[in-house]
Amino acid sequence: MNISLAIGIVFLAGAAGGKLARYVKLPSVTGNLLAGILVGPSVMGLVSVEEMYQLAPINELALGVIALSIGAELHWGTMRKLAKDAAKVFMVEALLTLVLVFGSLYLFGLPFRYALIFGVISIATAPGAIIACIRETPSKGDFSRVLLSVVAMDNLFSITLFGIIISFMQVGLAATDTGNTPAIVMASRDIGIALLLGIGAGVFLVATSHKAKSDTRILVSVLGVILVTVGLSNQWGTPALLAAITAGTVYINFSGKPQRISRSLMNVEDPILLVFLTLAGAKLDLSVLPAVGQIGLVYIGARFVAKLVGSRVGTALTKFPMSWKRNLGRALTPQAGVAIGLAIIAEQKSIFAPDTIMPVVLTAVVVFELIGPILVRKALCDVDEA
């Protein structure tokens, strides 16, 4: 099958799945994912693994758009009164998730290094599904901004901690494979480069939005900046998510026309997210589900409980409305791309045996990406009604 036909199948299947999901009162995200599973290698095989690999640039563009959108929600004037409380929620929720998943798997009998890396991966949250639900069910007030802030911190913490722990596991406490640079220094360098790259991209967007005569013209610059930012991050081995979030944050806080990027992306964001989510479903390998067994159940159960309990405890330390405290945890349950990416990287390291991490993570992604969007929409609706 040629790549044009594959893209067409993904578009139509995702759109049909989303429409059917809305018809039965489910989030369109769930329909996109189910449609992807249906046309993917696990069921009908209309889109092969090779063709999904060829569609990787679309995934990278989508992740960049999602991350930029998260950054564009972090306006200092709005976040000033929310950032401290959002950080409290993140710290409690992320640490409890790490400890509970790691502890549960370690007590279950997994080796220390496996239990620890699963704990780190479990912190990651799927921004794509959450962004899509917010677009479909806009929440009132600042709840969605707090939610996206916690999601951003979850993923950045997971990525950073993962890099540090993998480095220490590979070379002890002193060095990496390529030299004698301490792992913490290598991680700090990567984060610094990502921040500088994001600041440069954000400054470029500020200048472009000021000079562009129309939203249509700025769209080309926005998409180009996203691809360059993500591409350079991948080439240099730095966190692309952090760079794109930084670019969006710089733009929203320093541009005299802060809404231009959001307006310019409005016409293309939905199709990009649709393809991204449908491809995410197509990548899910259902054959791994029976093989995972009890380990997968422990991971899923521990992560689910940790997100709910951690968020409730974290919000208890804040002055958030009661409806926020009840609903924030369930809105943090989706898990997808970041977790899969970290699992792929882990299995490429000699310290882990092949096919020991990915099956568990994929199983969790199947579960959390199917029930997660439903919980997110329920949370958003409950907050709206409060």
Automatic annotation (TrEMBL):
Q: Which residues form the Cation/H+ exchanger transmembrane domain?
A: 10-375
Report whether Zinc shows up as a keyword of the record: no
List residues traversing the bilayer.
33-49, 89-108, 114-134, 146-171, 191-209, 216-232, 288-306, 327-345, 357-376
Which Gene3D superfamilies has this protein been placed in?
Answer: 1.20.1530.20
Q: Which UniProt keywords apply?
A: Membrane, Transmembrane, Transmembrane helix
Report the domain of life of the source organism. Bacteria
Secretion signal, residue range per the UniProt entry: none
Q: What is its main location?
A: membrane
> Where is this chain's protein located in or outside the cell?
Membrane
Q: Which GO terms describe its molecular function?
A: antiporter activity
Which GO cellular component terms, listed alphabetically, does the Swiss-Prot or TrEMBL entry include?
A: membrane
GO BP of this protein = proton transmembrane transport
Membrane topology, from the record: Multi-pass membrane protein
Protein name, entry field: Sodium/hydrogen exchanger
Species, as recorded: Alkaliphilus metalliredigens (strain QYMF)
